[in-house]
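Handout, page 2. Input:
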Amino acid sequence: MTTEKRSAMRDHFSDFDLDSTEFNDDYDEVLAELLEKCPVAHSKVGRGYYVVNRQEDVRRVAQDWRTFTSVDGMFPNRPDGMPPVLPEEIDPPYHTNWRGALNKHFTVRKVAEWEDSVRKQVDALIDNFIETGECDFVKEFAALLPGRVFFVTLLQAPLEDLDRLVDVVDDAIMGSPEEQGPAWAALHTYIEGYLEERQQQPLRGDFIDSILEGVDTETGEPCSWDDKVNVVTLFLSGAVGTTASAIGSMVLHLASHPEDRDWLAANPDEHERAVEELLRLNSPVTGTSRTATKTIEVAGTQFQPGDRVVVNFAATCRDPEVYDEPLEFRPDRDQTRSAVFGLGPHRCVGSHAARLELKTSLEQILRRLPDIALKADATVTYSTGLLRIINELPVTFTPGAKVGDPR
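Output:
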């Protein structure tokens, strides 16, 4: 019955649209139907694009950067005025050079050094509302924590600057095409000013110094100043957007599944696996785009040079060929084939940081808000594009005491 209603409104096989109301409202059903019946969908939006859905095919596209290049952009229809998003929108060997410079700042061991700082930021945000017994967990926590961690840990920049940028990041990632270009340009302007200031300061041996040092391009020439700015801009938008989405989805699950919430509170050793499973269930990234460089067939669909191809990570994470009963929460699943942080050379460099923020948030929520629940009569709505984001998350809990100031 749901499928018939949806199909009457939009044929997601031949007229798919990442930004459509139909996809947003019937998200679970559309993903399931694509996986069952349509390994490659097509969109008529803009210049048009294809959508690859099943994990085997997504893995093939994402890992073959020579056949499916990233240089035309991560959005299937690139907004006007949007600067290049590096290193997401470059290929090896230039991409490899950047990853070599950045990876050392995001290893498991390096990220573990952030734990105390992250926990303080988590507690500070909870302190803001714990005495009230209710809050909008997206606006008062999920949308704020990743940016605070990025500013405190990596940029070491004033949090007041972040307050001015939260809405700009939202427009850059989830805004209309008319909003996205100016928003990306505004982020670029802020980061450029920050890097100019840092360039005048003594070396710290940190993430920003590695950016300022730069790398060689594919031609062997030093990278441009704009490329350095664009790399930091991507990290800021990724930190604020994707991790915020993941935190919101995690808390929604806790608040609407008290049996899972209570089980996790009683089994802290399962928190790491629970985070992986919650990420799989609700991938923050719906997909990202590639461009075919030659004629090639994938899952019965022939692509021509120049065809735009979206790899659907959200569907891939629910592929029933990989995950039995994919909509069930099962923390004991084998996650070795997880695609939630991407596949191939563009796999998320900040995955360990995201996991730390999610796990620390989970621990402190269960400790300080143990009976967190969805507010009675609450309606949870989403915005969907390249990301899947909860707009508002009204929750209630037994009021508690503050723990102090993180500074």
